[in-house]
Amino acid sequence: MERDAASGCGVCEERLFGGVCGLRNRMWVGAAVLGLAALAGGSAWAQGYSADKPLGAASQQLPAYLAQAGLEQRLGQPLPMGAVFTDETGRTGELKSWFEGRPMAMALVYYKCVMMCPQVLHGLATSLKQTELTAGKDYDVLVFSIDPTDKPADAVGEKKEFLATAGITDAKQAAAVHFLTAAEPAIQAVAGATGFHYVMVPGPDGKMDQYAHSSVVMFATPEGRMSKYLAGIEYPGRDVRLALLEASQKRISNPVDLLILYCCNYSPSSGRYTVAVERILGLAGMVSVLIVIGMIVLLTRKPKGLETGGPGVGKAA
User: Fold this and answer.
1) 261: Cβ–Cβ under 8 A, 6 or more apart, which residues?
2) How does pLDDT run across 284-310, given as a tens digit for each residue?
3) Who contacts 94 (Cβ-Cβ below 8 Å, separation ≥6)?
4) What is the bridge-based pairing of β-strands 140-145 and 177-180?
5) Residue 227 backbone phi and psi in degrees, to 5
6) 305 exposed, middle or buried (CB, 10 Å; 0-12, 13-18, 19+)?
7) pTM (2 decimals)?
8) What is the 3-state secondary structure (H, E, C) of the chain?
9) Is 66-235 a CATH 3.40.30.10 domain?
10) pLDDT one-digit tens code per residue, 169-218
11) Spatial contact of 111 and 74, defined as CB atoms under 8 Å apart
C-alpha cells in the first residue's frame, strides 16, 4: 500500500510539474514570436523614418504660400502719396489728400474678411479709445483694403462698426477716419511701401477669394513716412498712445508723455514697447544724487542768527 501510495503520489507530482513546465515552455515560445514580430515591425518603421524629417514635421510645416505673406518693417519709408484711392463717401483723390498734419494710425485689411481682419480693426478701435486722444485733433485713421473688388459700399459698414467700437460719435472726429478702396496698382504701392505682404488663398469652398496676411497696425508721420508697427490683434492703449506720440514727432505730447516715452523702448522685432530698465535706474540715480546734495547743503548751512553774531552780542564797555 505504501508503495502504491508512493507510486501514486509520484505520478501525480510528475503530471503536475510536467503540466506546469509545458505551459511555461509554451509561454516562452509565444513571447519569442511576439519579440520577433516587434523587431521586424521596428525594422520596417526604422526604414521609413528619417532623422531629417522628424515625426509630425509634415503637419507642423506651414503651407508654402504663407511664406509670401510676411511683414517687413520699413521704418522711415515714404508712402506713395500720389497713389489714387476712394473713401467710403465715394470721394476719390491722391493719398496725400487725407494727410492733414497729424500722425496717422493705419491698417491693411479687406472688407469681405470674416476672420482676422475684424479682429485687427476691433483691436485698433479699442486701443484708440484707451489712448484718450481725439481723432481729428491728435491723429487720423486710414484703413486700406487690399482687395481690389472691395467698393466704397463695402467700406461704409466697416467704418460704422469701427466708430462704434472706438466710441467716436462726433461728426468732426468721424470725418478723420477713412476707409479706402483702390485698384490693384495703388494697393500694391501701399503694400510695398509698408512691407505688408499678402497672398490670395482658397476659402472653404475652394474659391480663390481670401487673403493670407499679417495682423498688424501701423503708424505714419504727418509727412507720410512709416514710423511704428504694432503686431497682433490686441494693442495696449499705452503702446498706441506712445506710437502716435512718436509719429507726431512729439507735437501732441505733454510732460508726462515725454517721461513715459523716455522710460520705454520700442522693439521692432516684437512690435511692442517695453520698459527701459536702465533709463529708469538712471533717473532714480539722478534723483538720489540730487536729494543727497540737497541734504548736504541744508546741513552745512549755518543758522542766520549765528552768521550775524546772534542777539545779545554787544560791544565791550
Assistant:
1) 242, 245, 246, 250, 253
2) 676 777 787 777 777 787 666 655 555
3) 81, 82, 83, 84, 85
4) parallel
5) -120, -50
6) exposed
7) 0.65
8) CHHHHHHHHHHHHHHHHHHHHHHHHHHHHHHHHHHHHHHHHHHHHHHHCECCECCCHHHHCCCHHHHHCCECCCCCCECCCCCEEECCCCCEEEHHHHCCCCCEEEEEECCCCCCHHHHHHHHHHHHHHHHCCCECCCEEEEEEECCCCCCHHHHHHHHHHHHHHHCCCCHHHHCCEEEEECCHHHHHHHHHHHCECCEEECCCCCCCCEEECCCEEEEECCCCEEEEEEECCCCCHHHHHHHHHHHCCCCCCCHHHHHHHHCEEEECCCCEEEECHHHHHHHHHHHHHHHHHHHHHHHHCCCHHHHCCCCCCCCCC
9) yes
10) 999 999 999 999 999 999 999 999 999 999 988 777 777 678 988 899 99
11) no
Cell of 19: 503540466
Query: Which triple of cell numbers denotes residue 90?
Result: 465715394
